[in-house]
Amino acid sequence: MDGMHVNKTRLIFIGMVVLAALLLPFVVGSYRVFQFNLVLVYAIVLLGLNMLTGYNGQISLGHGAFYAIGAYVAAILMDKLGVPYWATVPAAGAVCFVAGFLFGFPALRLHGHYLALATFALGISMPQILKYKGLEQWTGGVQGIVILKPQAPFGLNISQDHWLYLFTLFIALLMFWLAWNILRGRVGRAMVAIRDHPIAAEAMGINVGAVKTLTFGISALYAGVGGALGAIVVQFVAPDSFVALVSISLLIGIVIGGLASISGVIYGAIFIQFVPNIADEISKAAPWAVYGLFLLAFVFLAPKGVAGLVQLLWGKAEASWKRVRAQKATLQS
Amino acid sequence: MTAAEPATDSAATAMPLSDSVLLRVSGITVRFGGIVALDSVSFDVRRGEIAGLIGPNGAGKTTLFNCLSRLYQWQQGSIEFDGSDLASAQRHRIAELGIGRTFQNLALFRTMSVRDNIMVGAHCRSRGGFLANSLRLPIVRREEPRVARHAAELIELLELESVAGLPAGELPFGTQKRVELGRALAATPSLLLLDEPAAGLNHGEVETFIRLIQHIHQELSLTILLVEHHMNLVMRVSDRVVVLDFGRKIADGTPDEVRQNSDVISAYLGKAD
Question: Does A112 or A3 have the greater pLDDT score?
Fold first, then answer.
């Protein structure tokens, strides 16, 4: 799709960002490594949500539920069944894909606000489902499950935090590559076409129901992969980590970062990881009020998300650079 | 078919579908609640012809189009297209069968670029689902450039080069109409349905549009069925004209025959009681 095209400058830029992300853990303290690790986790979840809401136009106020399912699948597999941590990530993704795909069917009948409410029902009920007595032997009830931090493999001489960060980064890059491939091709066009005009999309031969349910599944898969990685990074899952606010934060993340933007999810992930902390540092008494001010500031200053703002500034910079070059050329001649 | 045959004549429906008939509408009746939108309408569209479908407002023209797209369900009658029964086709299979269409009030993908709009049109003529796309399998790497090349050809044909990268929703009305045409053509239809293609166009644009329709009709060996209010356009481009009034067919023949038909004159100008 247009805007998905990667030219040379953009490729160099992406390469530099990846390099910076690779080197980051070696220049900051271990708590920051942990925080940036969570940024990567949120970026994966937001990417999935943005495919669903930003590109396909299906709003979800319940993605925290899929995030929770992914986290619990990883924790249960590691703690109860002794599955290695890395193998829990695809397992969590697969479980969430099925869950999301199935949820996608009733979602076909709901639009706009009604879909928002239906997904919110999922998000708000998840903590109590996880506390349910009948599941306690698996989920650990209110106590949750504590899991062990994995060691770096192959005798690599780096700390556990560093290894986990690099592992998450690798998965994140893979998930971004897959998403970019989906979005820039035939399926991505179909997703956006359905968002823009479902009747015309169907008349163009797009199987609207199939694309929407599969998008729901893929989106939940991303949330599940993120949830599994999040559980491993935090080394702990408990029902109260997955309250409805998580789902709302995720939606905030994609809007602040930029709807229907791949790079936007990185800005969104940074926002949902760091802004609550910053708000807390500014005012211990009313951190959410400060958070609210941040939200308002972003909404007004970057109405198309941070990605939209960056694109605008980038375009201006490019234009003025071209002007300077043209002026130089005329001066020389 | 003879000129201005009565709408109730159902002799045509009994005949087998010959090779020369691409679309056969037989006794289609559509009711919305108590209102009869189409009342046993029958007509054929032959391969390679341009057929015009006209009638006063509320005559049932768009209703008929929406039946051909399977957007509406009809209560009686049948529609045969290229030898297959349309009633058994799912809505998203219509394009694949070879029926392409444009919409009366524009139905573009507004945020998508002109190029992407036209590439979506090729959806039914290309392959590759979620898995193949996510892994960028060889089939996707073959299909994408092919679809892009076809889109580029259509962009050139419709003179949309200068706006190809712009969001379709930001373009002037007349340009958007051309984009919709390009999107429909991308599916390489055998039958093209045009729903009021000239509505909202100024005089100059209508002239350009007439030439464009004639050009693509020849170039792409299409069969075209068009609904239109613009009488001049219909009479000039159509080989045959079907006239609807209050859901019934009142005339069917060459433009000249239809022009002289007394039922048509009274439907358009009112009866001199």
Answer: A112
